[in-house]
């Protein structure tokens, strides 16, 4: 009877996960990005022209909205990892996001939710207080909903591929390529189709299309429920980390055992947070091992440990894993910082250049961003279909190269993007000087805007290497019970990088006011090329820092259970869980 039940469970498990789940899962992220990109690309126009908000107020509203949307994934991830699970966090987040999108669409359709159109030369009536409150409430709902979607979709999707295959060499790396390709494609559609409809057809339809799409994606995601592998949440990861810290501090004077095998382990206690395998002891950050020193005073009468005095080796290694990840996580921040000028200074460059495709039509300056998206999509396709198969022949690795190598390549290519930007700026200013246009900031310099394509395209190529590898690193090296939180760290790096970009520009502007004013309003008289060279230098330092961190990085060793013989495999991971594992059987009997 037990054998029949076991076979039924195994058959049910075989029907779950895998590629069949991808359409249901990725649809959520696609429409999230589709809606977000469609809103953000042209929302400043909606706020100023439809709600008649002053430019500064509209800009601050969108800045606050963007900052909130980047912070809420941390909260959503902690909820998912602590008690709700990824499926329900995505579902509830999607519904909340849907409500926000419906509200925004209603504000564009119903006359009572926006001020009347401007008439003649009369002063435009600004949106009333309650109309603004309705807008802010709508934006807040989308920010909260996004916090439940973004950190969980990537971890939930990767789980379907990595957990559906008992082979630890499963090629889950391809999911991250697919994830970023889907994001890029939806962003490209939003920057073209949605923005065109908003400008030429109407805001009701322009906001309504992504709203309808999001509704369909929520329905599709819920319909796929029977197909998903759903890991049981293992309790608050922050509390577990705090317990290790407190226990280690309390035993800071305790004598460490000479044999690490004498440290406390409890497979039953760790069952919910080590479904795919237990973390094994490492010889780094050994101060925290004190939390696993066992004494008679550390146990309850039930035989369970007092968790604020005694932690298992697995829980200690969870904390070590997070600490080891942080230096490489920081690397991603400067990449975003260096790319933030693509949406500011590069657009100013484009506005000053010849953007005509024909005598009666010129390219909008902001449209140049499309070249970054297109180059990223093409690079992802090339990487997955051509680069990996070729590299696999030389390295023997399923993924071709490890994600740390891929990340390093992305950092190197990103440097070239800013070199190209600096060189083009030197050329643009030289042409302006030749035509005597240095003191005419609103004049069109006779140099094609397509000179900017290299810096946009190279950035897109770098993003295809760097961002994918960064996300994959965070997923693979984070503890199993904290993968949603690790995915949220990716978005936190994006948010921090943008804020760092603002800080860098402010500092450069303050320090150069009396030294030529690099970033003055008239960029023809400014020294924008100096700024690009400065960012290039910072990126070189970032690359050197990364190479040092990657050289000393220790990958998490994992003991993977094998259900068929109830043994375990010790993963001696030389280059990460990126399909680069060497396996050696070890006994899996309880410690």
UniProtKB/TrEMBL annotation:
TM helices/strands, residue ranges: 133-157, 178-197, 203-228, 322-341, 361-383, 403-424, 444-465, 486-508, 530-555
Q: What does the entry list under GO cellular component?
A: membrane
Per the record, membrane topology reads:
Multi-pass membrane protein
Task: Give the region (Disordered) as residue ranges.
Answer: 566-591
Which key words tag this protein in UniProt? Membrane, Transmembrane, Transmembrane helix
Single GO MF annotation: transmembrane transporter activity
Q: Where in the cell is it found?
A: Membrane
Q: Tell me yes or no: is Ribosomal protein among this UniProt entry's keywords.
A: no
In the record, the note on similarity to other proteins reads: Belongs to the major facilitator superfamily. Proton-dependent oligopeptide transporter (POT/PTR) (TC 2.A.17) family.
- PANTHER family referenced in this protein's UniProt entry, alphabetically: OLIGOPEPTIDE TRANSPORTER-RELATED
Record-given protein name = Uncharacterized protein
Where is the organism placed in the taxonomic lineage, from the top? Eukaryota, Viridiplantae, Streptophyta, Embryophyta, Tracheophyta
């Amino acid at each position: 009877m037990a054998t029949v039940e076991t076979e039924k469970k195994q058959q049910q498990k075989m029907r779950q996960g895998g590629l069949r789940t991808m359409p249901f899962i990725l649809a959520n992220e696609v429409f999230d990005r589709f809606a977000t990109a469609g809103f953000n690309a042209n929302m400043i126009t909606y706020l100023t022209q439809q709600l008649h908000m002053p430019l500064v107020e509209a800009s601050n509203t969108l800045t606050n909205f963007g900052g909130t949307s980047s912070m809420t994934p941390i909260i959503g991830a902690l909820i998912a990892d602590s008690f709700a699970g990824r499926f329900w966090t995505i579902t509830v987040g999607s519904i909340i996001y849907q409500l926000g999108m419906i509200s925004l669409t209603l504000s564009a359709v119903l006359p009572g939710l926006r001020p009347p159109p401007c008439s003649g030369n009369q002063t435009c009536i600004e949106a009333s207080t309650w109309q603004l409150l309705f807008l802010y409430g709508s934006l807040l709902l989308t920010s909260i909903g996004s916090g439940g979607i973004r950190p969980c979709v990537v971890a939930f999707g990767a789980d379907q591929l990595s957990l559906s295959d008992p082979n630890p060499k499963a090629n889950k790396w391809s999911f991250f390529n697919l994830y970023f390709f889907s994001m890029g494609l939806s962003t490209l559609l939003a920057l073209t189709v949605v923005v065109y409809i908003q400008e030429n057809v109407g805001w009701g339809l322009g906001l309504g299309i992504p709203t309808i799409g999001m509704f369909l994606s929520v329905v599709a995601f819920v319909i796929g429920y029977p197909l998903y592998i759903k890991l049981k949440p293992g309790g608050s990861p922050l509390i577990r980390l705090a317990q290790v810290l407190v226990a280690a501090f309390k035993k800071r004077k305790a004598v460490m055992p000479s044999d690490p095998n004498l440290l406390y382990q409890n497979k039953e206690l760790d069952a919910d947070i080590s479904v795919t395998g237990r973390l094994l002891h490492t010889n780094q950050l050994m101060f925290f091992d004190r939390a696993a020193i066992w004494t008679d005073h550390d146990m309850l009468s039930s035989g369970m440990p007092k968790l604020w005095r005694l932690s298992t080796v697995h829980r200690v290694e969870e904390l070590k894993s997070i600490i080891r990840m942080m230096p490489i996580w920081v690397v991603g921040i400067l990449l975003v910082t260096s790319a933030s000028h693509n949406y500011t200074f590069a657009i100013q460059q484009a506005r000053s250049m010849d953007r005509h495709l024909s005598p009666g039509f010129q390219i909008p300056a902001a449209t140049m961003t499309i070249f970054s998206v297109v180059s990223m999509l093409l690079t992802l396709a090339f990487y997955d279909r051509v680069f990996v198969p070729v590299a696999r022949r030389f390295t023997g690795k399923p993924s071709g190269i490890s994600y740390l190598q891929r990340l390093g390549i992305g950092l190197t290519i990103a440097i070239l993007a800013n070199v190209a930007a600096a060189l083009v700026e030197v050329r643009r200013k030289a042409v302006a000087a030749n035509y005597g246009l240095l003191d005419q900031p609103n004049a069109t310099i006779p140099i094609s805007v397509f000179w900017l394509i290299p810096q946009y395209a190279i950035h897109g190529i770098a993003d295809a290497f760097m961002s994918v590898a960064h996300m994959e690193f965070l997923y693979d090296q984070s503890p199993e019970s904290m993968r949603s939180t690790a995915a949220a760290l990716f978005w936190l790096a994006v948010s921090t990088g943008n804020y760092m970009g603002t800080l860098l520009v402010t500092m450069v502007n303050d320090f150069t006011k009396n030294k030529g004013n690099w970033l003055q309003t008239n960029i023809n008289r400014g020294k924008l090329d100096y700024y690009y060279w400065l960012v290039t230098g910072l990126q070189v330092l970032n690359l050197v820092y990364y190479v040092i961190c990657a050289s000393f990085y220790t990958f998490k060793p994992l003991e993977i259970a094998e259900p068929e013989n109830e043994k375990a495999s010790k993963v001696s991971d030389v280059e990460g869980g990126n399909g680069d594992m060497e396996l050696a059987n070890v006994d899996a009997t309880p410690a």
